[in-house]
Amino acid sequence: MNNTSIFIDDTGLSGNISNSSSISQNSVTWSALILNYEEKKEIESLIRKTLGIIQREYSVTEFHFKDIYGGRKEFKGLPTELRLLIISLFVEIYNKYVPKIIAVSINENTLTNSGFSDKIKRIKMDGFNYNKPKDVALHLLLLNCKEYIESNSKDFQLPVEIFIDNGRQKPNTKQKVTDLSEICTNGEIEYLSSVSSPLLQFADFIAFSLNRIQTNSIKQRTEFDDEFMRIVGRIKWNTNLPLMQVKASNMDSLNLDFYDKYMNNILDSMPKIDKKQ
Fold it and tell me: Among 100, 182, 175, 75, which residue's Cα sits nearest to residue 135?
C-alpha cells in the first residue's frame, strides 16, 4: 500500500550511570520513525544495498547497532573504521530525508516525577502494564504518534501502518490498541523481525543513537565514543525531543551535572498526571 508507515524500536541505557539523579539503569527509549511511501522504498533500497556490499566480505545478516558499536556477535572482527563507516552511512541516509522522529525516554524516576499514582501504576490495558516503565513508554509513544498524525492529517495517507521490532510479541503477530482505531486498520500494530525489515534496522539506529548519546554524555568516554559522538553530531534531527547542541570542540564540557540539568528540563516540561487518580 502507498500508506504512511511508522517503524518503532527500543533500546536501554548501558554502562554505569549510578551517579545520575535524572536517569537510572532501567531507563528505556522507544523511538518511532514516520515514513511516507517514497521514503520507505528509497531508504529500504539503500540499506539493502549497503548490507549486500558488506556481506561480500562478512557474514552479517542485519544492522544491529548495539552489536556494531561494541564489535560484538556478527560484527566481531570487523575493523573499527568499517563499524564507524556504517554509522556514518546511516547518518547520511537520515539526513537525506530528515523524517520525523517521535521518541519517549523514561524510567521509574520519570513516573514518580510526573505524578504517577499507585492507582495509575496498576492500570493494565491493551497489553500494556503501567507498572513497567517500558510499557508506559511504548503506550505514550503510540499516543504521541496518533496525536502527531491527526494534527498533520493533510500530510499522511490513512490508515497508517505501525510496525514494531519483535520482543514484546512474536514476529508476524498483532496487538490491538484501542486508542489507535482512528488511524490504524482495526487499531492494530504489527510485530516484525528486524532481520526481515531494513526499516526496523533504521529505527534501531535512531533509538540506539538517541540513547547512546545519553550514555556517552555521563560516562568516561573512549576514543570510539568520541568519534561516534562527532559522527552523530551531524544528524539533522527532526524530533519531538529537546536536544543538546554541543560542538565537537566542546565535547569535554559534557559532564554529569550538565546532563542532569538537561534531563531535569525534559522532566519539567512533561505533562503532569493528576495525583488524585
Answer: 175
| Cα–Cα distance measured from residue 75 to residue 71, given in angstroms and rounded to the nearest whole number | 5
Instruction: Supply 142's cell numbers.
Output: 503510540
How far apart CA 28 and CA 108 sit, in angstroms, is 10
Q: Which long-range contacts (CB under 8 A, 24 or more apart) does 117-122 make?
A: 117/273, 117/275, 117/276, 117/277, 119/277, 120/273, 120/277
β-pairing, 128-129 with 161-165?
unpaired
Long-range contacts at 67-72 (CB < 8 A, ≥ 24 apart) = 69/208, 69/212, 69/224, 69/228
Question: Distance (Å, rounded) from C-alpha 69 to C-alpha 92?
Answer: 17
**Tell me: the pLDDT tens digits for 227-254?**
999 999 999 999 987 654 444 444 444 4
In the chain, what percentage of residues exceed pLDDT 70?
76
pTM: 0.83
| C-alpha cell at position 121 | 501504576
Q: Give bridge partners of residue 129 from the DSSP assignment.
A: 124
Question: Cα(107)–Cα(134) distance, rounded to whole angstroms?
Answer: 8
- Cell 492529517 appears where? 153
